[in-house]
Amino acid sequence: MNIRTMSDLAPANSRPHERIPVLRPQLPKAQALLPYLERIDASRIYSNWGPLVSEFSQRLAQRFAVPASGVVCASSGMAALMGAILANAGFARPGRDLAIVPDYTFTATALAVQMCGYRVVLASCHHDTWIFEAGELLARPDRLAGVGLVVPVAPFGRPVAQLPWQEFQSRTGVPVVIDAAACFESFTPPQHPSLGALPVALSFHATKSFGVGEGGCVVTTDERLAAAVLRALNFGFHGSRDSTGISLNGKMPEYTAAVGLAELDGWDAKCERAGRVLQAYREAFRAHGLESRLRCSPDISSSYVLLQCDTTLQAESVVETLAGDNIETRFWYGLGLGRQPCFQQAPRLDLHGKAAIEAGTVPGLPTAVDLAESNVKRVVASVASALCR
Ligand SMILES: Cc1ncc(COP(=O)(O)O)c(C=O)c1O
């Protein structure tokens, strides 16, 4: 017998529990990619909006019920955001170089804004909705001086309605770009109220429910704006090899589109598997009388299972207990952008006072499309024991 560790000698029921990672993504298997990869071999087109990227964009446009040219694929969610910002707001200009972004988001939102020349202003978000509203900014005209961009974020894939932001843009003249990184599941036909003329950026990072590894797209019903995004993500080229404006190389390669097409092919089956895990979570939370603390799909993306704690102290104690039980957790948005070294000095816009969300109160719990029900029960039992202390 080959004994590798002391735990191999212990009886099964006294072995330490296996580690449960916070997320174990699963993308299409090699076999599902093969027909698409063979098409790349045959075409010998590897990038520059090739046939697979075109097909992927069109299938996405159909799914989102926007015009065929209304989806522009990008090399990442952050590149999609930059393309959308450059197309709708342009690079920051003197006197219009402030950008309002939520404090409660992933750091890529603010980094994309910064890469387009803007100085970040961190706005608070409400603890119930995790967002700031267009009306709340309209009520603070004093804070709109010098603002050249606003980027509302759909937190954890909970969509942000477009109409109020379209009105905000037309009333103030301040361009708006929506960061809807994790919203893929929400944007199903008929036309979702979160899609429209304003550019919406999605991420297809492996950690998202719909993943390609690294990738993303911009969605808009405005075909002229979509053409401007295309330009911004391709060196500013437009029908010639002249750079027509500040831009980047943010194109999606054909190999990534191959993964995207295979992911679309298997999407219904993937959703079914994710649904089973979420159902197990709902039941386990209910069994412990904790259902009011669970934040999961369909309210947010199925790639997140979040625990609403009352205080940061309580959240810390849950995280510590779970770590002791070999269960990984993650604050997906860290402790707020204001705690990131890069944005510590950024000016703040307090819209909510004591009703602002504290990022450290919502840890992410483990999930995966193949997370076993027994492991879901283990996670929730550990959460319950921490909350009882
Ligand atoms: C809110 C938000 N914005 C932007 C991004 C950036 O996306 P990507 O990682 O694809 O660049 C993410 C990724 O997690 C995100 O959660």
Topology, pairings included?
Elements: H1 30-43, H2 51-64, E1 71-74, H3 77-88, E2 98-102, H4 107-115, E3 119-123, H5 134-138, E4 147-150, H6 163-172, E5 178-179, E6 200-203, E7 216-219, H7 223-232, H8 254-265, H9 267-287, E8 294-295, E9 305-307, H10 312-324, E10 348-349, E11 364-365, H11 373-388
Parallel strand pairs: 2-3, 2-4, 3-10, 5-6
Antiparallel strand pairs: 1-7, 6-7, 8-9, 9-11
Helix pairs in contact: 1-8, 2-8, 3-4, 3-7, 9-11, 10-11
Bound molecules: pyridoxal-5'-phosphate.
Describe what you observe in this structure.
With 389 residues, this protein is an alpha/beta fold. Helix content is 35%, strand content 10%. The chain has 11 helices and 11 strands. The strands form 3 sheets. A 4-stranded mixed β-sheet has the order 1-7-6-5, sandwiched between helices. A 4-stranded parallel β-sheet has the order 4-2-3-10. Strands 8-9-11 form a 3-stranded antiparallel β-sheet, with helices on one face. It starts with 29 loop residues before the first helix and ends with a helix.
